[in-house]
Write a structure and sequence with these properties.
Helices cover 2% and strands 44% of the residues. It is built from 1 helix and 27 strands. Strand 23 and strand 24 form a beta hairpin.
């Protein structure tokens, strides 16, 4: 494989051949520059809906953005390329085209839209004109999902059966059958939903493979659909020490720990990684009566406490290509080169901001 020659040249073959260790924060490309450019804000103060605390964003080829779920309604908000709200997709209910709690949302082949319902364990597929094409019950609700052109899906989910519990990935057929469970060489089982059981995932440039990123350690692994681990990348940096298990503490009460929010492999094979870190000026917010109130910080407040470190890794050479710190939270990827994050105003309104990422420089891969 090509990445072996890169490792030999870098003198990094001390690790097993299926593991690449990238140490330190010095980029291999001294002239490369990572830029983060605001592109569009989805929503305005006059809108009657906004994003929920945790949400997903997708975009189609015609410039429409989809955000789900909306706060209090669990529906899908549709925006045009300028960020103007076009309307809501579906309504509250259990019938065709209705949702109890929409999300994730993904764009599939031919601008079809896949909407997964958390409460109903159901998939609704809309055609490019946003008409219901089909509905399908699912064996599990996915926290994240990749749509294959064949109609098969790679779902990141917890399946509570003796043969599948503890495996984070599940290959699901078009008709909703689980074909294989994988993503861990030893199942991880806990009474709580641990960080290791809820990894991020991304499509690979290697057909039929998927990248997953642990949340409790800076470890990225490439898995063949249905089973075998191909490659693991371990980032060894002082600012992201491995953790045994996450315990939720609000970001304004305890210094936020590093957390991988999103990964994406571009067409050149480079891996883009979003890692949330504590804001450089982080300070705990005093609370009335003292103690810690265990509630999530709202999306309109979160940027006071969290930054994002964006890194570009080259798996073939086993190096850090470039990195930059962004002064707000980036929650994930919309598509190649586009990421999203929360934005709020002084009145407590919450919106979604889309940014464009770019890597430039004479020696950029």
């Amino acid at each position: 494989m090509l990445w072996i020659s890169g490792l030999l040249a870098a003198g990094m073959m001390a690790a097993p051949p299926d593991t690449v260790r990238i140490r330190g924060d010095t980029p291999a490309c001294s002239s490369c520059r990572l830029t983060v450019t605001p592109l569009v804000v989805l929503g305005s103060p006059g809108d009657t809906v906004g994003p929920d605390l945790q949400y997903w964003v997708a975009a189609d080829s015609r410039g429409r953005y989809y955000v789900a779920p909306t706060i209090g309604l669990g529906q899908v908000a549709v925006y045009d390329s300028t960020g103007r709200l076009l309307g809501l997709l579906g309504r509250r209910g259990q019938g065709p085209g209705e949702f109890e709690h929409a999300g994730p949302v993904k764009v599939g082949p031919d601008d079809s839209l896949f909407v997964f319902d958390h409460s109903l364990n159901r998939l609704t597929v809309f055609d490019r004109d946003l008409k219901v094409a089909r509905t399908q019950l699912l064996p599990v609700w996915p926290r994240n999902v990749l749509i294959r052109r064949s109609g098969e899906m790679v779902m990141q989910a917890m399946v509570p059966t003796p043969d599948r519990i503890g495996f984070p990935l599940h290959l699901v057929s078009r008709d909703g059958r689980i074909l294989a469970s994988y993503g861990a060489e030893r199942p991880v089982v806990s009474r709580r939903h641990t960080a290791a059981q809820w990894p991020e995932l991304a499509e690979s440039t290697d057909p039929g493979a998927v990248w997953i990123a642990s949340r409790d350690a800076y470890v990225l692994s490439l898995w063949r659909d249905g089973g075998a681990r191909i490659l693991t990348i371990v980032r060894e940096v002082d600012w992201f020490p491995p953790r045994a298990e996450d315990v939720f503490v609000p970001e304004d009460a305890a210094r936020p720990v590093p957390w991988i929010r999103g990964i994406f492999q571009d067409r050149q094979g480079l891996l883009w990684v979003l890692v949330s870190v504590a804001d450089q000026q982080w300070r705990a917010r005093p609370r009335a009566g003292g103690g810690v109130e265990r509630r999530p910080v709202s999306n309109s407040e979160i940027n006071r406490y969290v930054d994002t470190r964006i890194e570009v890794l080259d798996p073939s050479a086993g190096v850090l290509v470039a990195a930059v710190r962004h002064p707000s939270l980036l929650m994930g990827f919309v598509e190649e080169g586009l990421v999203f994050g929360p934005r709020g105003d002084d009145q407590g309104n919450e919106f979604v901001e889309i940014y464009r990422l770019a890597l430039t420089g004479a020696n950029a891969p």
